[in-house]
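Write out the 3D structure for:
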Amino acid sequence: MAVPTAERDHALARDAFASGDLVHAAHHLASALAADLEDERFLRLADALAARAPRDLRPLFPERKDGKTYYAAGALEAWIHASRGEATEALALLVQVAIARPEERWLSWAGRWLLRDGFAAAVQPLTFAATLARLRERAELRDAPRLLDELGALVGHVARATGSGELVVVAARLLRLHGQAGRALALGLEVDAATPSYGSALAAAYACRELGRPEEALIWFRRASSRAPAEESCRMDIADTLTAVGRDAEALAVYEDTLRREPRHPWALPSALYLRAALHGEAAAAGALRRLAEDEPENERARDRAARLVAHGLVPPAGLPYLDHLPRRTEALLDVMWKILGDAQGPPEKPASIRLTLSALEPPSAVAAMHRQLEALGWAVEVHLHVERLQAPDPRAPRRRGLRHWFRRSFLLWRYDGVRARPAVAAPPPERTAPVAALARTPYALDAWWTEAQRLRPAADATPAELAAAMVHPPPAPQGWEWAEWLFAVQVAAALLLAQDAGGRAILEDLLYGPLDWAAGAAALALARATPDDPAARARRRSELLALVRARPSHGAWCLEKPLLAAALRLSDDPGQRRDLETLLREGS
């Protein structure tokens, strides 16, 4: 039922309309609709206003002094466009209003309009798709699942009526960006069943890939490619997905097929050079890739693949580990995982269980990376870990610090249930960790990342706790990254962003002395880089780090040794000590 204010606005709108004052009629009618958008009396007056409104609606809805448009006025303008049969303008405006006010049901109007003969078919799909594309970063959508459902249904109806695959692709991407990959897949499948197109297949493929179903994604990418054989970008998606499921030889064949048509293809060329080096040990390919990355610094794919040559030990790394490049993780658990994957013919047909026995407790980040890698490759496997003997001191417990730390609660990333670790912090909103992902994707060098972190941190909305939470709830791994290398890159990036303010540095201190984990190594690097350029401060931090180096566990591999050595080296001014630390740091690297 309309509230009294709405009744008053309706009466004023009616009187203004009767006297021919359409501007005031529109103003008061918009206010009435804001109170009750389904009142049939208000909507009948909106139809009457549409019949008398001028062709150019701008005088009817004058701009406010603050330059913004009252959302209900935008909705009324959309209603007038719809009354005139101007479907594209009506839906574009209404969607913007609905997203501005996700708690209200403005899209119910679209349901009325779509019942009219020819309305949906009259929508210009590319124009409507452009409207949706502009809305893809709107944070309000993530917390509005009902609105996303309604938006998906609206777009599906229009896409079926217009046969527009482009519209489905944009809408599905909008859904995926707001954590609704399942809805994006449903939209792609629904439209593909009604009007199969390149776009509908592509929408289904991207959704399957994001849902961790790469084999299904391959089916849909290939279906899309068969519908548009000239689309090289889809062929690159096929090759990238083949790489993600370990079918590198097939991926190389796709890349090279593209290169036969376009020898300098900016994605296929560095991808093929990398795989030639990785699969066949071609030194010439490795050299060509490194030169390509140097000659074309704007080619991110070339820079990324060249960095992988180093990370995967395919070419000798330049500089020092942890200072000039992030070495590949070498935990026994990850080596066992890759051996299992290499020996298998593919994912098991039904969920399976594996029991692994370890001589010592592995870092929880290594376990997390293993699980995420298996999921990314489509393996529905439950892994049970058995530890023969725990290290001493207990790697699950925070290590001792000075008396000043006894009276405050430490920040923890992991909590243990026996030997099983679980995140101790909630996942942060994905948009808050975007700077972490942006930094982690760039070629690594500690000093370069520090400079970029200084630039990124002031504009980041994330709290220190949210940045730290990204270390155990990382952003999705980019296509082609192994989860172990991505997770550690994310942890180092998050640590460098944390080190930009006092609250973040306090968390890093806790992580440095917390349970043994890759995150503690990331904290060591960030704290060393954040240490003031003061001899006394550098000496104190260096002494602290070297004391931790000497506190080696009783047995098992030690994930902190090399990051601690690198952090201490970063703070060392003595030539003899630097030489000794460099020697230790290079051993086994």
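The first helix runs from residue 4 to 18.
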